[in-house]
Amino acid sequence: MSSLRLARLQEERKSWRKDHPFGFFAKPAKNPDGSMNLQSWTAGIPGKPNTLWADGVYPISITFPDDYPSKPPKVKFPANFYHPNVYPSGTICLSILNEEQDWRPAITLKQIVLGIQELLGSPNPDSPAQEPAWRAFGKDRATYDKKVKEQAQKYIK
Amino acid sequence: MDFNFSQVVGLIETLYSNTLAAGQVVQVQSQLQQFQKHQGSLQVADQLLDPRNNYSLECQFFGALTYTVQLNQIFSTWGAVVDDESDIDDDETLKGATGTDDTRNMVDQLTLRQLSHLNNLLTQHFVHRQPNLFVIKKVFSNLSLVYCHNFHNWTNPLLSFLGTQDDPSISSLRLSVANIEHHLQASLAGSAQKLQLVLLFSQIIIEDILKNNTMSDHLDQQLHTCLRKEVFVVTEFFVNYSMNLVIEKLNNNNNNNNNNNNNNNNNNNNNTPKLSNDNNQLLADAVRCYTAWTSYISFSYLNSTEKFIIDPTLNLLIKFLLCHQTSDQLINDSDSIFVVIEFLTNLLETNANLLNNSFKQTINDLIFKDWGMNYLNFLNGSGDDDLIENEKSVQDFAKLVISYFELDMVRISKLLVDDSCSYIFQALMKLTAFPGTPILDEEISRDFIEFWLETSDTLIDDTDSLLILLKTTENLQLFKKNFKTLLELLGKTYWTKVQLPLANQTSMKMIKGQYKDEYFSYRRDVGDLFDSMYVIIKDSIFKFLFDNIINNLNVTSLTLQNASEVEASVFLINCMCSNFSEGNVPDEIFGMLVHLFSFHRNEEINFLKIGLITNNSYLMNTTVSFLSSINFFYKSEQGLGFLNEILDYLFNLLSLSIQSKELPGKFQFIVARAIASICSQCRTFLASSLFKFEPLLFNVINSIDFKAFTREKVINSVSFIIQGIKNPQTQGEYIVKLLQLINDQSTKIFSEIKSGRVNNNHDLNILLDYLVSLLDCVLQIARGMQLPEESVIFYNDEERQLVDNFWIADNLGIHSMILQIISGFSLDPELTNIFITNHNNGESLGVTDGSVKINYHNLVTEKCCEIFRAGLCEDINGPFVFADNQIIIDYVLSKFEDTKNRIDVDKPHSSMTLSIGYLFGLLETFVSANYRKLSKEAVTNCIITIFVMNPQLLNSDVDLFTNALQFLNKVIEKKPDLLFYISDNSANYFATILESCMVVLKQSNEKFVIKTVVKFWCNLITLRAGTRENQEYITRIFIDEQFGQKLTNVTFSALLKSTRSNYEIYCDIVRNMIGKYPLQFKQWANNALILINNQRVSNGKKALPDIRQLISKLYLTKGTRKVNMVIKDFWLAANGLMDI
């Protein structure tokens, strides 16, 4: 692992421990020998209170590329996650995670997970990533709401 | 606008009177702001600021504020002169950058006027006891503003402040630190208050500089130098002077006490200010001032070459702490001790780069030698009660310890092999085990979680550094042994900490209430710590936790304490178990699990019963999570014997969850999720006990009280088990039972709804939800019955043949049952009306509350399509695989006809169009899976029905058109032959589709639509799976019928108009055209671009960049991805944009 990436990820881990928002979790995967694989993390995003998403904690995987932090991490929900801005593969379409848009090396893990939490309740209709949720969000909001609530049950806290 | 004095005073008083409405406040503020920018405003400000005029403090403050406005106006043009004097030398540049002589003189005068005001304000403050400190601070801030800009001329504001009190002339502005000590001593005579004010002024200056660090680098360097040589020197003197005063007084007091001498304190130095009894205040002021300075110094280390020496002051702070040895001293000065410890902690946490090794060692000695241990003993007092009383101080000391260790975590390893340092770890453990419930009573143990995690991670991951530091393998072994012992102790400590205070109702109420998030976040963090510790202590931590559970089960009657301990143990085991998977679980863990589940297995109290006996939802919840995280165990030889029992337990809990009012609503979701997880992982082991689940299945399907999610998860789980049965006859019999139950129940509900007896919106929605859930159960059976990915090894050849034949024959009539259910839900016109009517307005059912209704028609159509889709990709025949292709086509076309008639094409974006999208989606998958077996007639029939017979519908909604095109794309991609030559009028309908696609390509802005239509054209150009005849047919259309030219025109036109994020999508057409029609495309592109260019020019727009050059560049790429770069440059140039 490049020293820059390693140092930054160690710093991210430390910062997260010191200060992470309630209800979220994030930790590196483990190697077979028990040591940490800082390149690959799992995390959980709680839905914001008083939103359709409130009941669930939604799992994501975060993979940091070799040239992180020059390039953003790849963040994914499970495949077929129901949200207008999540691709069928689970990849999240969010400007701060896009190298060509708003990604900056200074963006922290905490900012990323908070940004994703915000995205859950406030989808961006201009950046559709999957058809089912996007169409329902635009055309049949009652069904969209019902499906989001059902999904929250799947990932109940 | 002219202002008179009384008018201004009136406005100020009005503004601060709190009686104005919001609009009036804005109006008054606006008038006053105009006044402040007015030329004569400073004369009024001087009047307002003079306390002898007896204006209110608000007026005084406004006077100071007016100075701020005027100073900002002056300084906004302060450096502008430089631009006009570019030919002068460096010194002149400096002068220019700091104003002209006139402005400098004016600034000097304004500075003196403010210093003079300060004198008067201080008199008002100290003599007349007026609470005007906020005005004084504002004037200090103004002077700080002057200093920031004028430091070349005014080098030491602190000395000027002291000097003007004796000599309020210009000379006070020229005082410097050279030979200043005498002056300082004289100035300080008799006044501790003056000391505090100098400290405050210094603090304000340095904080303002940090806040407004916007000056150019050139000035910054000089400012840093000036700050160090002038302001810092004075500040340091005053801080140290203050510290010495406090320490001296402490020593005198100590001596007096020691000598039992009742004489008054005698200071030898007559100039030494008389300290009030409040040492704390002076010390706090000094520390606060120095805190601001250390932040600045840390900043300046990164931004300048200036080096500050801070050791003397830091050593004085340590000396201050060391003066406190006895309980009385520690009690009397507890606030000051707190301030100093907080300062040291901040310094270690944020500005540790300022500390040299020598001082770090000093801190080490402070913490871990006599003083620190004495302090900790003092805080500990006679036991837990004293410790709790001193929580804040303990927490602060703990933070100091943590921040000190965090400077270099590996250092701990060295201490661990040194017996003489064992007391350090005892101290750390004592702090970690601070009494009380975490979050509710104490936060110290939370602070330590992070510390121990960091320690544990560092010592696991940084083995190289460890070996270097410890030098010998013996030391390394000793370290490992001691570290393991330490972590075992730590594990026990946190095990106690995560126990829920079940017996304490008040605490539990707080945990369920305002502290919920924080408390459970704490538990999760402890879980992470255990997860990390496990790597080192391995099985011993499991053993401790399992033993604890067993001990708590080995009782005659259970208490809440038993439940609490078991819950904590299970919770922590669960946190560590989540990292196990098949193949990496130590044998010892299996042994412990067997012991756990078999202990008192047939007796009144055992592991699976404890939650139910104590009726504790937390324990049940944690147990369920644990049971769903040990799938590795059920699949093992040792665990298999417990599998049925555990599922029985979970099914019991599920039934209980809908009967119990005490269990939270979400509980059944958690149980259902656990059942699903176990069943999907262990399907093959559960087949023999499937009959046991029948009563539950009956209950789950027939009871409306179960949540839809639970019902669907359970049916899906059982379907997994059914799938695991290799005998298709047995499989089929179970499926028939399930389908029959679903069919009977849905028929019953349909009748109830159709009868019209349900006239309440709420009840109707519950029934409709239930119906959709029943239909979803069919889908869950379909998904559960899908062959696992490893189907090739699941069945041998003989078994495959047997299964295949069984489902082709379908003697149990399962295919018909499925179609009957689908037809009942989706094609019954009366029911469809109910679904749609409820969505539209509900009025025919007596529902008039106007709430947003769910479109059940869409949901039902979606589920039906999914049921069909579930069998489409199976390798062999099965219950949901329909051998007759026409069944699905007929369903799609029937439902399409039914739905389209319910869409008003004049009202675009109807939600009903979603149903049609699902139908087209099913067709797309259908083609993808069955294209080899499909007939041209069947496909063409679909295409003509969709595209030719319903153009108005498709054109009414671009999403519909896109969905239809996705189906068409799949046909072209998989077997384009299905599309061509099927009837005499094929060319006509195909031309109609091409024209429509051309229009969509030209007009669409939505990414999904553009991508789909571009994909259509690319598929058509390349025609990868096409026959020679297909290729010739398309080539003729492109060349002879000039669709190639048309497509090129539209592509370039749309591309040039598209947004930055979309233009690249069109490049695929260009790339494929270059590859497929290299000769023609050059001309087509040239024609298209000339046409577009002419239109642009005639519309007054900028002409396109060089067209010939573009085409040459495109051809150089040979249709590779480089086309995108060429197009990008062209697009940017055509739109007058730059690449950023």
TrEMBL record, chain A:
GO MF annotation terms: ATP binding; SUMO transferase activity
Subcellular locations according to the entry: Nucleus
Pathway(s): Protein modification; protein sumoylation
One GO BP annotation of this record: protein sumoylation
Main location: nucleus
Natural source organism: Saccharomycopsis crataegensis
UBC core domain span: 4-157
Family: Belongs to the ubiquitin-conjugating enzyme family.
InterPro entries: Ub_conjugating_enzyme (IPR050113), UBC (IPR000608), UBQ-conjugating_AS (IPR023313), UBQ-conjugating_enzyme/RWD (IPR016135)
Top-rank taxon: Eukaryota
Annotated Pfam families: UQ_con
Gene Ontology annotations for the cellular component aspect, listed alphabetically: chromosome; nucleus
Protein name, entry field: SUMO-conjugating enzyme UBC9
Record key words, sorted: ATP-binding, Nucleotide-binding, Nucleus, Transferase, Ubl conjugation pathway
Active site, renumbered: 93
From TrEMBL, chain B:
Keywords: Nucleus, Transport
Localization in the cell: Nucleus
Organism: Saccharomycopsis crataegensis
PANTHER family for this protein: IMPORTIN-13 (PTHR12363:SF33), TRANSPORTIN 3 AND IMPORTIN 13 (PTHR12363)
SUPFAM superfamilies named among the record's database cross-references: ARM repeat
Protein known as: Kap122 protein
UniProt region (Disordered), positions on chain: 252-277
Coiled coil: none
Primary localization: nucleus
Biased composition (Low complexity): 252-271
GO biological process, one term: protein import into nucleus
Entry GO CC: cytoplasm; nucleus
Family in the record: Belongs to the importin beta family.
